[in-house]
Amino acid sequence: MKKRAFTLAEVLITLGIIGVVAAMTLPSLITNYKVKVLEAQFKKADAVLQQVLLNTSNEVGFDISGLLIGNTHNDSSFNDLKAIIPEMNKVWENQFTGATRFSGDEYYFHLIGHGDGCHNMLGSRLSGCPVSEGYILPNGVMVTKLRAYDSGSIGFIDFWFDTNGPIKGPNRLGYDIFRYTSYPEKWYFMCNPLIQNSANQYGCYYYAHRNLNPIDSSKSYWDILYKPLSYWQKSNK
Hints:
Blueprint: H1 8-60, H2 76-94, E1 100-102, H3 104-113, E2 134-136, E3 142-144, E4 147-150, E5 155-162, E6 177-181, H4 204-210, H5 229-235
Antiparallel strand pairs: 1-2, 2-3, 3-5, 4-5, 5-6
């Protein structure tokens, strides 16, 4: 009986083909894995913070969800909101057992110290982090204090959170850094890197919370992550 085996050339060709296929598919697999991790981290952090927000609202007897104050310059309700914020933050903070407090500058320099910093959706470095003082929770999540925000025409409550904290990446708006507002319609359209506005990408929480794609209703929110500028330009034509 003749013994048959692969020749060295056949083995090398097969390995070469496997290598090419792996080089073509691995980046996509890695990116998909990163997206799934970010999605899971967001859903977990969002669920916890929504419950804490509800507890805070019930404790102080002030309905936060959907809160909108009219013209803040003429409406005394906004002053009432600002007056109750300290009490809200006491209840807010008491629910974060084992949390470490930080100031806005401390959080920013903590990021800089790790060579990361804050980034926009496309990964470009921002000059600063859009956060105020808050807490680093034992599970690594960053969350700021509640704030009575005056946009100049309307007022509402907001807070920022980072689903995996300052040390882990990617530290991008709309990826792991989000802004919750009690009146999301103010900036809900601000989840697109092509928009030229100082509040650009501040509205991504609106879409992530609802799992809505801001530019393609047939896809989920998380499909926009790690897409190049050309993806956004093509989608906006």
